[in-house]
């Protein structure tokens, strides 16, 4: 396990070192964006290794119980075979001579490792594309200012990142006239875009949902650390709260269609003030007809800080519907709509 951690961190640190070799002509904001990308990759790698390590320890604990059980039952061959297992990562599958439930535990662990690896790759790929979009804007801005050295430096960094998806020439059945979804906007997201509802939210300002953009607030600004590229491609717009409004989002639907809401369930304080009596948990949203927009549907996690992913729900609402929603003590839920 330690070997895998060292390898993963080495790969990420090599990437970070490459970033430090960027041209001195690179604008400060572009350099900072690349630094944050490398920090994100490192954090994701560490989180993945920790998850794998926890799964490994849990599996070995199960195998130890199986070993003790087989010894007590006099199945010495099986007990010896279990004791001989030193690694769970062999691609050939579980060793022979061990009980069926032990094989199942090892296969489950190996499946977990694959899932964690896939999630890591998807999160980093999504972040890279999101960074590429912002860097492209930096290149355009520097070109307009006739800072050609800076523009070329940004372009050189862009070449190291995945290509930004281009608009699709093929319309999807659910699209609204005048809006062309990007190629990766399919399935549920395409449905949300093609049947987007209108919304007014008290004390908010509708703005495009983008990564690493400072959104102003009454007391302090804030930003999203990671935004899935699919949400950006879908034309996602947040109704950013300009005031905490007592932790409540007060809304009114102006036209029929789908709307989404972003909830932060991280710890924001104790139960004082009675806020827990009116807040909606994830189960409350589901019980009231809202569905969760999964990580696989978004393509990556939506993260407002480096530690806590956000939960996104969506529902088709009717014009005229209105209400107040709370999900936490201080931070109100953030409504999300899509370009029409």
Summary, kept brief:
Helices cover 44% and strands 14% of the residues. It is an alpha+beta fold.
Q: Bin the helical content.
A: 40-55%
* Order of helical and strand elements: HHHHHHEEHEEEHEHEEE
Mean pLDDT: 83
- State the low-pLDDT regions, or none: 12-20, 168-179
Kindly report how far apart the N and C termini lie.
Answer: 49 Å
Count of DSSP E strands?
A: 9
Strand order of the largest sheet: 2-3-9-5-7-6
Note the main sheet: 6 strands, antiparallel
User: Helix segment count?
Assistant: 9
How many domains would you count in the coordinates? 2
Net shape: globular
Q: Which class best fits the helix and strand makeup?
A: alpha+beta
Report the radius of gyration as a whole number of Å: 24 Å
Tell me the fraction of residues in β-strands, as a range.
5-15%
Task: Describe this structure as you would to a colleague.
By secondary structure, the protein is α+β, with helices and mostly antiparallel strands. It folds into 2 domains: 2-158, no CATH class; 187-338, no CATH class. It is built from 9 helices and 9 strands. The chain has helices spanning 2-20, 28-72, 76-83, 100-144, 148-158, 187-194, 229-233, 282-287, 295-298; strands at 198-201, 204-208, 236-241, 249-255, 257-263, 291-292, 311-317, 322-325, 334-338. A 6-stranded antiparallel sheet has the order 2-3-9-5-7-6. A 3-stranded antiparallel sheet has the order 1-4-8, with no helix packed on it. Helix 2 (28-72) packs antiparallel against helix 3, helix 2 runs antiparallel to helix 4 (100-144) and helix 4 runs antiparallel to helix 5 (148-158). The chain is globular.
């Amino acid at each position: 396990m330690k070997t895998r951690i060292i390898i993963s961190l080495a790969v990420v640190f090599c990437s970070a070192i490459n970033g430090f070799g960027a041209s001195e002509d690179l604008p400060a904001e572009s350099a900072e964006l690349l630094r944050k990308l490398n920090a994100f990759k490192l954090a994701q790698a560490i989180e993945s290794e920790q998850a794998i390590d926890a799964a490994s320890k849990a599996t070995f604990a199960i195998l130890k119980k199986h070993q003790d059980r087989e010894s007590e039952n006099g199945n010495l061959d099986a007990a010896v075979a279990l004791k001989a297992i030193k690694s769970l990562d062999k691609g050939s599958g579980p060793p022979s001579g061990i009980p069926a439930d032990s094989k199942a535990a090892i296969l489950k662990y190996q499946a977990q490792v694959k899932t964690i690896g896939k999630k890591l790759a998807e999160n980093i790929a999504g972040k890279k594309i999101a960074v590429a979009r912002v860097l492209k804007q930096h290149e355009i801005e520097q070109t307009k200012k006739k800072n050609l050295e800076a523009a070329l430096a940004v372009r050189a960094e862009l070449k190291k990142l995945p290509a930004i998806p281009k608009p699709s020439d093929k319309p999807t059945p659910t699209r609204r006239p005048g809006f062309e979804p990007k190629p990766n906007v399919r399935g549920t997201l395409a449905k949300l875009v093609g049947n987007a509802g209108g919304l007014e939210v008290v004390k908010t300002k509708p703005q495009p949902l983008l990564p690493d953009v400072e959104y102003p607030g009454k007391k302090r600004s804030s930003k999203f650390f990671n935004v899935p590229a699919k949400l950006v491609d879908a034309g996602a717009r947040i109704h950013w709260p300009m005031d905490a409004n007592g932790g409540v989002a007060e809304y009114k639907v102006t036209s029929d269609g789908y709307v989404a809401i972003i909830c932060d369930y991280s710890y924001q304080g104790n139960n004082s003030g009675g806020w827990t009596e009116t807040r909606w948990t994830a189960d409350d949203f589901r019980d009231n007809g809202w569905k969760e927009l999964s990580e696989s549907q978004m393509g990556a996690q939506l993260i407002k800080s480096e530690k806590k992913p956000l939960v996104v729900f969506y529902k088709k609402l009717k014009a005229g519907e209105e209400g107040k929603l709370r999900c936490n003590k201080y931070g109100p839920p953030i409504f999300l709509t899509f370009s029409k």
